[in-house]
Amino acid sequence: MHSPMEGVVTPMPYVESSSSEASESDDGVHTASTNVEAPVQETSTISPTGPIDAIDPIEEQTIIHARAYQVEMFEKSLKQNIIVAMDTGSGKTQVAVLRIQAELEKCTDKIIWFLAPTVALCEQQFRVIKSQIGAAPIKLLSGADNVHTWSDTRIWDDYLKDVRVMVSTYQVLLDAVTHAFVQISRLCLIVFDEAHNCTGNHPGSKIMERYRVQKNNGMPCPAILGLTASPIMKSDINGIEKIEQTLDAVCKAPTVHREEFLSIVKRPTLSPVWIPNLGDRPPVSSIASLGKAFRNLNISQDPYILRLQGERTERNLYKLRKALEKRDTPVIKQMQSFYRKSVELHRQLGPWASEYFIYRAVTEFLSSAELDRTWFETWGTAEKQYLSNALQQVEIKHPRPFKGTTTLDVSDKFITLVQELQSTPDNTRCIIFALETATVAVLAQMLSAETSLSSRFRVGSMIGTSNFAARKRDLGELNRAKDYGDLEDFRTGKLNLLVATSIAEEGIDVPACNLVICFNTPPNVKSFIQRRGRARMENSKIILLVEESSEQYDTWLALEKMMKECYEDDTRVAQEMAELEGLDVNPHIAPLRISSTGAQLDFDQAKSHLEHFCRKLTSKQYIDHSPYYIPEQIDGFPDGIPRIKAVVHLPPSLPQEIRQVKSRMHWYSEKNAFKDAAFQAFKAIYEAGLVNDNLMPLTDDTLEDFDAHRSTMEVNTLWKPWSRIARLWGESNERVQRELCLKDGDRMIARFEASLPCHFPKLPPFPIYWDLDNMWTVETSERSNCIMAGALKEDQSAALIDLAYGHRWEVQDLPHILHLQSTEDIAFRQHVGKRAAEKDALDPEFVVRNARGKPHLFTEWLPSKPSPELVQTFEKDVINEPEGIPWLAVRAWPKRQNLLHPVIDSLKSSKRYHRALPLSHCTLDTIDRSKAYFSSVIPSIIHMLEIFLTAEELRRTVLAEVNFQDVSLVLTAISSRAALEATDYERFEFLGDSVLKVLATMSVMVKHPNYPEGYLTERKNRIVANSRLCRASVDKGLDRFILTKSFTGAKWRPLYINNFLSGEETPSETRELSTKTLADVVESLIGAAFIEGGISKAATCLRLLLPDVEWHDFSAARPILYSRREVVTQLRPDHEPLEQLIGYTFQNKAFLTESLTHISWGVSSSTDVCMERLEFLGDSILDSIVVSAFWPHQPELTNSQMHLLRTATVNADLLGFLIMEWCTTQEFTEISPFDLSTTVSYKKVPYWKYMIHKSSHVASLQRDVEERHAVEREAILDAIAQGTRYPWVELAHLDIPKFFSDMFESLIGAVWVDSGSMETCREIVERIGILPYLRRMLSDGIDVRHPKNQLGELAGRMNKMDMRVKYETEVRVEAGVKELFCRVLVGDEIITEVGEGVNPVEVMTKAADAAYALLLTRTNGLDNEMIG
Known about the structure:
about 1450 residues, 46 helices
């Protein structure tokens, strides 16, 4: 089935932060300029990706010198794995650069991998490293490179070829190692930036697990270098030991050059400031009103609860019970969080802040919900309405301007903050860290409005929440448009005060400042150290606004001192590591390891990989494909604590035996029970063959050596037969002759015997375009004659060629590759201009030649020179000849050597004579001009013979197994349109595409009985992909036979036998061919095979050209597919009328039931039956039936016309409409209330109502489209019955969901599997109305172009510079009603605007149609010639 606009996105389970953490790029860096900034692209995204090789300011201006303590740390790293623990600003990155430089010298065949936690930090560190490693190849790899689609080893090998240094996030390397695309042994050094993060399940920890497997097995392992400013995350000194164990490294700090190190590290002065009376401001009414609205929420009316109650599946009942027990729904969570934030803002910042926050949050949400703005677009309509109703109960008032506030309106904490800022020096650059995003947003607003600070501070904010478009927005998350713009302005100095969350603690390249204020308590010691590291300018200060006791900070300082003493003690690790070695009390679940690839999946990774696998199963909508988990509590354990087991439920498109998988062990927590179940499920999926040995969803790896993105490729030059024929002239004793006749209608112009020392193909008659008025024909005799070499008469080829072309270039009297002989004696150069031109000797049957030997045709004797007004052209050398002598009126001999193509029409001259020559300049040939006519045709004959011999060679060698009988089919199949031969492959390619699609579909279904639709579609797409076909074309050597250049004859020269025998062996020549052409020839050969021998021969051709696919033709595929379903002989009673409607009685009723079953039916049942696989099959069968219906049409349809017809005939909108019109008749009885008599009536039940599903969403969509159908159907039926244009606009307005058309395609698939008959399927396609409408399209010349195509073509024909068509859609609210509009522009001119759209595709279609009609009236029907 075809749709004018469609697309599928299938992301990998790869998550990469772009904005949470990064690190300093200027640690210990000496720069030639004091303000070096990376180039900034002015877009809304923080990390625009551009060419990596672009000139970078850092690369040009940064000059880095290593200090003594950095060299000390570098030398320590050479002796053992270490974690460099140095303060922010002390130059840890430079230590890594030194080590990388050393490794580049020492290790030449492995890769250095630099890891950082975020994309922003990766980009930053990439630039620093690149600037210092010279020409060593370095690459940056992130999610922006679509690394999630790199699903085979070949891609990784190609990308990493010759790379010495790689920079990426942790997750990128973990995924690559997990799937064995990158082996740990391939690395010589791994640098862990921000190494303190490598704890627990962090990707860095997982990478080190693979490292330890290598190490324990005695395999080569890379060196490890960690970089951190805070090797402990929480207030626990044992954190150092944990990180050391994880990274197999020891924390080190400078000792020998410690004095220098301490002189560089400018630690700020710590100043705790006590905040009294926090939260003593009077409450505000809006908070009380908000609390009341929250408490009054009726959970029974919550959309989440109603949805779960409406779809009572096992999964939903479990969720419902949990939600009611815990009073836990998305909306309740939002209200609870909103209330908590409001209370906290009141406590932290005062009454004005809470009122401002509540007012903005409520008004923004209500406005967004009303206007359908994008900020809350991921919320469901019911959720938004339910929450809107609750928020409308909140009493809010517009807060008065902040300038009018008093000390009672703000908190003491805010007042203290302002006082601290007022007391700072003029050059202050300050970062204020706050805990909550709401606090940051409101605090930044208050500081900006504070008059006492406005003259000194330019305030910005940075929150850094996810930029992911589909993330559900929180109530109270104030709309921000310039988050990272403020960071950039702070970097450049436009702002000097930044209010930020913890995002600015580490990672992001926040410039050094001289004041850091902690508005809230840092959550841990790591956070405290990182914040302190931001204040690294001279005489910096860090202020802690203390709400409780300052002893906490004294504790942190003592802990940090103890921590540094620990990792500065070189003997500590050696004393204690042995005692801790081997202790592991965690339950051990062995990872899933694949020995063939080295891929490995562990317990903690299973859930994300399972999620990704399920997303790849199908492209269908209206069902949640994600796995879901049901826990089971088990009591009776000795310690009295219950344990948990879990069952994971997988999508219904999977085989029944793996639909539900249980956890193997008992667990204390649901989380681990779910992980266990996911792990067991993934193992079962692998064992079922549904993931490959890289533990990735199955992809076809047959294209691993081909670049699918190439548009052209270098291939073999065109094969030509002449060298082999030249050798056979000397080696063979037999000669094959055919008679060549040049004819003008039935009149014979010339006849010659042509001979070759090999097979001489029968050429079909071909036209010769002599001039505008004369078209002749060359014919070859039906039968060939075989004679011995000695019986062959003398070759007249050279003499003949000299007749026509001797005046242009020298012709040698040598044997020619094509031996020509007539019944007359034609001697070399004995007839050209050998008779004087005298009046009595002039004869129109003889050629007249001028003084240079150029041939002309005599037309009239002229007694004197004619007037120039009578002659079209005088040749230069006769223009000054005297007038009183006789002249001849002549016609010039055609200059063209290519007589196979029509003469381009030109204006005929009105003058009487074409040419005129003085008699004294003229001579006559002594042989009649018919021989010269034939001579002129020799290049064209040679070309036709060449291309037929090329096709014969292809048939005889590469295609021998296919056994083509008609070589002209092969010739057509290898002739591109550019070759301008009598036929080209475009029609064959179209037919072959359809045949390939249906055979590929059947073959993958036969081979993979357990594959879900998504897998089948992907496998089929890879088989029929142009890149796959292109590679097959090259592998089989088809590239040597493809005709792409037009024969012009301009460079044609005689083919002397000696020229092919005397030359030395030359290297094989190559040529550039389009990859599409290479692929098209494969499809055209399939089409040619189908034309000659049907589907069986097409399958034979496919087995030859694509041997790595196990091909099945119809007769082989159908019994296998039929046998896989248990026979059911009885339909459900309500489905019995369907067989009468369809016109077919099923042998196995299970196929009809399967074709009706939507995938949602299996979500809560154990069935694995749904329509997806049959729809996948039926789509290709329907396509084949439709193509077969219009293929034989006369006159022949062009490739473009066939594409348009196929799209118009099998598109989802038309199929959906016809399935809505296709109805059974159902008896309906009523009892009269008066006499109790029975009244029988009949009502129509449309086919779509028989669909079996369990989805409220599907049901809602069915109701909506049924209402639109009732309104629109008559207009569409009228267009189908008698309209002159295809009803694209009307069908689009119905907005029919795709599952309607899926029902029909799955029915076609079911009928074919049950009957094995394409004719039976064709009858059903006829019965529903598709084929009758197709016949009317052809007979009545209906314009089937889509309006957007019509408009684009018409605009392209208008004689203006910029006629590009643009579509602009927008949602407007008029009188409280939302309406979708589309504006159409051609160039810069607005052509039209339409509204009342039901979706963007529909409104654009309608707008294009209106714009086309308007432009057509302007151009007076310019487009009429394009129709048809």
